[in-house]
Design goal:
It is a single chain. By secondary structure, this protein is mainly α. The protein has two domains: 33 residues, no CATH class; 105 residues, no CATH class. It contains four helices and two strands, in the order ααααββ. The chain has a two-stranded parallel ribbon. The radius of gyration is 16 Å and the shape is globular. It starts with 6 loop residues before the first helix and ends with a strand.
C-alpha cells in the first residue's frame, strides 16, 4: 500500500519500486482502493483491524500510554493475529520505528518538524499499536 501515489507511479516502476513490483507480480495488485476518512491513520487501523480503534487523527491514540494498560496497546482482533492463528506468520518492517514491548517504542513518532528528513511515521504502521506478543514486529534501523 502506498499513500499519496497512483497505481501507475508504483506498478511498472522497476527502478524505484522493484520489490513492490515483485510482490504485485507474484500476488494480487489492487489499483483502486480509497480511504474512508481523512487523515490517513484511521484508514490504516481500519485496514488492519476493521476498526479505527477510536483514533480519528494522525496523532497518538487517545488512550495511548507508555505503560501498558487495559486498553493500550490494543488487544483487539487484527490481520496479524488472524494470520498467526491460522498457522501463517506475520512480520512488519519499518525503518526507525520501535515495536511494542521495547524500551522506548511508545513515544517515538518522528515528525519532519522535529526530525528533519524523516517522513516515515508510526501512523503508517498500524501494527505498532498492538501487543508485541501477539504480533511479530521487527524494526529496522
Amino acid at each position: 500500500m502506498e499513500e499519496n501515489k497512483t497505481h501507475g507511479q508504483i506498478i511498472g516502476d522497476l527502478v524505484n519500486a522493484p520489490y513492490l513490483n515483485s510482490l504485485a507480480n507474484g500476488g494480487v495488485s489492487l489499483g483502486s482502493i480509497f480511504g474512508i476518512t481523512h487523515p490517513s491513520q484511521p484508514n490504516y487501523l481500519e485496514l488492519f483491524s476493521g476498526s479505527n480503534q477510536g483514533v480519528v487523527d494522525d496523532e497518538l491514540p487517545p488512550n495511548f500510554s507508555t505503560v501498558p494498560t487495559g486498553t493500550y496497546p490494543f488487544r483487539t482482533a487484527n490481520l496479524g493475529a488472524e494470520l498467526i492463528a491460522a498457522g501463517f506468520t506475520f512480520a512488519g518492517f519499518w525503518k526507525g520505528i520501535e515495536s511494542a514491548g521495547l524500551v522506548d517504542w511508545a513515544d517515538y513518532d518522528p515528525h519532519s518538524a522535529t526530525h528533519p528528513g524523516i517522513f516515515y511515521r508510526r501512523k503508517h504502521n498500524p501494527w505498532a499499536n498492538w501487543v508485541a506478543k501477539v504480533l511479530t514486529c521487527r524494526p529496522t534501523r
